[in-house]
Request: fold
Amino acid sequence: MRLAYITNTSLKESSGGGSGVNFATYNYLKDSFDTDYYLINPKPDVMSKIKSGLRKKLHLKRDYHHFSKLRLTDVGNQFEDIEGEFDAYFFHGFTQWISTLPNKPYYCFNDACFATYVEIYNDKNEFKETDLNRIFKKEANWLNNAEKVFFRSEWALNETKKAYNLNGNNFLNVGVGGFIDIPKEDKYTKGFNFLFISREFIPKGGRVVVEAFQALKKSYDFINLWIVGEDPGEKIKEIDGVEYLGFFNKAKKKDKKDLIKIFENTFALIHPTLKDTNTLVINELSYFGCVSIASDRFAIPEYLLDGHTGYLLKEPRDPSELKFWMEQLIINPEKYQSMRVNARSNAIQNNTWAIVGARIIKAINKH
Reply:
């Protein structure tokens, strides 16, 4: 089978998140099919971007310039230039491709549809309803005509069906793997190092984490809070027990090695996010046997099994609830050790790229 893999992300970008998913998906596909890699990432629609910025300053509703008609048309035109006698196309992501008109069966893989993204990451009231509906309608039609639409979670799959009023007969949840080497064993031995890791400190719950940590440290002076990702600022870094370890790019060997060392010595991951779809870091830490405390939102409950591999937060912005579950991990060592075993076992059995890749390939071969 000859497959054209269409993406807007270079293979040189492979540190995690969307770039990690792109890298892993392509590599599993090329091992099973005769796959050609095509990068399509046109320049922004400058006029639309300027108009959108001006309207925002004037507090007027604006267009969603990143998916303007002009830019989507440009993507569609570049897609038409792809040469080759392909049996099918595979698209990384959804929305940027909705003006393409594939002449062969096509597949796509993403964490959520555009309607879900707007709900979580944007303020819908900033945009013209007519412009959002333009994109929603095109995406719904494009997804409905796909041979198979792969999602990273059942939650995102159902959200798409609901948002676009689709039956979803061609939808399939295949899950997602973590983008880090899976260790042969859990190497954790001691220490009470809670880890907060995110590119965005505030939206992912950084302040709540710090507040809960400070309250807990009054009773357990031996605990530490490690922060990885966005710099939280000098005031937070000066708090007793808080250590900012920096930002790590997994595409760099040294950064990856240092990050693995952190994961090996982490007591628990804390992730009280209100801005997410699914989170790769839970799977990644689970490979190391690390338990997690995270929001009972989005697709997180599909990867964090409440009371089994960690704890889900009903109110992610309530530091007292977060403090309570952090304390439970400290005062129940036998339960904690059992959860480490469960976390690692669940992740390796269900949430690796080898398993996700096999699910995608099986579905394509079926069609």
User: Anything to note?
Assistant: The longest strand covers residues 2-7.
